[in-house]
């Protein structure tokens, strides 16, 4: 019974399981069909979306392709324009390069000329600097060594004839020979000739002005000014290649040099003549003074001789002997005067200064043959100076000329005026002159006043 029940239960279970299996299979089939239907619907939707997306993409691609084509066309147009512009710029650059090459060639030629000119100037720089230094200290260096002013005048006349000949034969100005005007070579030559005359006239005006205003110390500046004038003419006439020839320019520079040399030599000769006349005047004054002193002593000599003669006639020998002593003194003085007159080197060397006019570190060392040397000092203290000279020393010497020359030689490097030897002023102190006199004058130096009185100057300072 129980087994039957169990079997029945098992059979029921199996039936239930079969029913459940059938139901599950039926549900599974339904679900599968539903899933297949849903998948088909999803596939159809996806295909529809894909088709729509494809059409949209195709539209976008078409629009993009059209835009790209338009942009490509615009880009191509711009590229062509830019290429055309670049080509034009390249053509301009080529022209500018050609011009720059020509300009560079011109600059190269000018540089070459400048270097050549610089080499010429460097070749002259040592001489020029030396001359400049000499001119700064007042010493003129001659460019042409000739004997006298007459020789310089003769050389100048010959050179001026040469300058005129260069201008007359067309060698003064160089210019282009292939210049034409409106296709006419004859008109071109006429224009070049007219402009060449105009340029030469301007150059000659500058050169003539330099000659007229020449002073020896201005020579270098006037030569530089003439050279700049020549360069200016070359720049203004560059189109027709008009320029002053080297031969003509060099001739005019030589003219300036000779003119400066001539003026300097003429001044030196005038100064030499003035010095000779001054020495003659000084010598004449000394001779007149000696003559007056001789006449005075001869009168006194005759007087005392007559007195002695009368005393001896009266028999007064004691008084005659006393007068004889005075007569001896007069005879000695007369002998000294005769000796001074015969010895032209004898005289006084004087050392004087003028603090108010020239300062404390300048003295004048001179020589006079006067019997009274102070008269010469008074003459020097005339209207030419504001104060009187002070005397530091008066030294008599039988060779005063030699003593003066020794002092001048010792202080030559400190001479104030190194051109005119008559200007006997030196930048030294009285103490330095005293030491030099001790060496050269020896026992002739009796008295030396080192400190100047300068009474007028000190009174003027105190007023």
From TrEMBL:
Biased composition annotated in UniProt, kind: Basic and acidic residues: 71-109
Coiled-coil residues: 253-340
Residues that span the membrane, as ranges: none
Assigned keywords, A-Z: Coiled coil
Location of region: Disordered: 61-109
Pfam families registered for this protein in UniProt: SNIPE, T5orf172
Classification via InterPro entries: Phage_T5_Orf172_DNA-bd, SNIPE
Protein name (database record): Chromosome segregation ATPase
Bacteriophage T5 Orf172 DNA-binding domain: residues covered: 357-440
Entry annotated with the keyword Coiled coil: yes
Record SMART domains: T5orf172
UniProt source species: Streptantibioticus cattleyicolor (strain ATCC 35852 / DSM 46488 / JCM 4925 / NBRC 14057 / NRRL 8057) (Streptomyces cattleya)
